[in-house]
Amino acid sequence: MNNPIQILEKYWGHSRFFPMQEELITSVLNGKDSIALLPTGGGKSVCFQIPALAQEGICIVVSPLVALMNDQVTALKKKGIKALAITGGIKFQDLNILLDNAIYGNYKFLYLSPERLKQELVQNSIRLMSVNLFAIDEAHCISQWGNDFRPAYNNINILRTLHPLVPFIALTATASPEVLEDTIIQLQLENPSVFKSSFIRKNLSYQVIKEDDKLYRIESLLKNNNGSAIVYVRSRKMAVEVSNQLNSLGITSNFYHGGIANEAKQSRLEDWLDGKNDVMVATNAFGMGIDNPNVRFVFHIQLSESLESYFQEAGRAGRDQNYASAIILYNDYDKVLIKKQFIDSRPTTNEIKVLYRKLSTYFQISYGEGEFTNHSFSFTKFCETYKLNTLLTYNGLTALDRLGVLQLSKQFGRKTILKFLLDSDNILKYFQTDVTLSIIGKTILRLYGGIFESPTGINLELIASKTGQNMETIISSLNKMERDQVIELKLYHTDSSITFNVPREDDKTINVISKELERLNQKKKEEVKAVLNYLENSSICKSLQLVSYFGETNAQPCGVCSVCASQQSTPSKKESILISEKIKLLLEDHEMTSREISEKLTFTESKILVILRLLQDANKIKINTKNQYYLNL
Q1: Model pLDDT, residue 412
Q2: 348, 510 Cβ separation under 8 angstroms
Q3: pTM for the complete prediction?
Q4: Domains of the chain and any CATH numbers
């Protein structure tokens, strides 16, 4: 069977393709390098899976996400299609067996992380395979100017040397014209056919709302919501706090961030997909590969660092094509915070030079030495040793990683994760058996609240400092508690590991990349500026603003975003007079917030907010420090 429609009907049960899919598949079957620039939920995977099934041989899929790889392999297996994934943590012997299966076992798909392409064993095995297609998922990750740049994607070009005649298909949902051009160059695509679907989502209402009481707004929107929702935040701490607050309001939620153990992540994801929890409060760790068609709301209560990030996260709403909302709730401080986080904390070239010298000194690397050496690294201890600003240092390290001077391990920023399995009474009884265990265990209990309820990241060095015990004793005690089934433990001795990619040459090393550093800093300024422009532009349709950022210039106003809705709901002259009088009557009694005024009046909230703004501009009312309006007598 090599007819694409027949394959689609047999394995997917559909009789026709989504827009662009058939053209893409034909391009791939004709042996052309191709790019699929399709929105989230646009069916990108079918565009490489069907041509791979239509030809003899195996398709090699490079993907950055283990969870996404495993999901796709599981889905293919359920269809009776032979597929396997090679992820991290596989022993050498098992890796050898899996690669032999891919060579000789009549498999159709082999999923790999880009890091695996560095291994000589993997390269030699791919050379022996009968490959019909290379599929590069999340292809924008290879562009240094894309928001999700991953240095490991530079390994992909080895595939060109192993099978120079095999076509590539690059797939992404988010790429500005600049990133698209850079992706073509970095992947060495030869005159590729580019298939770019419209970024317009007719069923998705993009809304930007200035709101100080963000939880109230979320509660009022979710109380009658039958679908799922995502609330995006910028920190792990905020994810936990907001989830707890929503639960206290009767809205079932859980939190998700990079510090949670993989088992807990999977469990929470499944509960959310199954509807056991309505809301997931998450950092951007809840990202690519999250496939839930029934998401009615995606909230951002802290600002994204770029429109690329925002557009991809917002696009997880309404994938079933039913009406959904992507809502940014912001206040004035959010605009200050985004500049502080992403612009003011960008290191200069001189600051990078200082950081690089301190790193070399910290690891006792001599001048001219250090290339390809690997070192365990505690980010916290490093910053404390040199009294460094943590945010500035973090951004400096990621810049050095992005520009190839060094490589940070995937675990960067992770802490040992621990959860107590016994209740407090039984824990205290257990501690009575060993003084050292008691000192360490009770210190952990004092430092970390909620450690009985969910796996919690802990700082081993902080515990060592508080208890006076050395690191070896701390680790030994935790391992004993795990063996005794007192705790659930995932142990990281340090935050990270660092591999130096080049020999130490101090300023000379940084001078080579200084122009690129300046370009990175300038790009980040432009990205933040674009986010703020999107936030503040209340005259152009929000959908138009977004799609034009990605190079789409012929779209029409959506009619459902916050800008279009406000233009449609501007009060008439007669309504304006009536609403003004009603507001002034209410404020004669006492000061009131806009929410309290809206609850007292029968007019739509958008019209009331327009009149409040006009009255304020006319100096007839003012607002106090509690965000309450009062008459200016």
Answers
A1: 46
A2: no
A3: 0.69
A4: 4-196 (3.40.50.300), 204-330+537-563 (3.40.50.300), 340-412+496-526 (1.10.10), 416-490 (1.10.10), 569-631 (1.10.10.10)
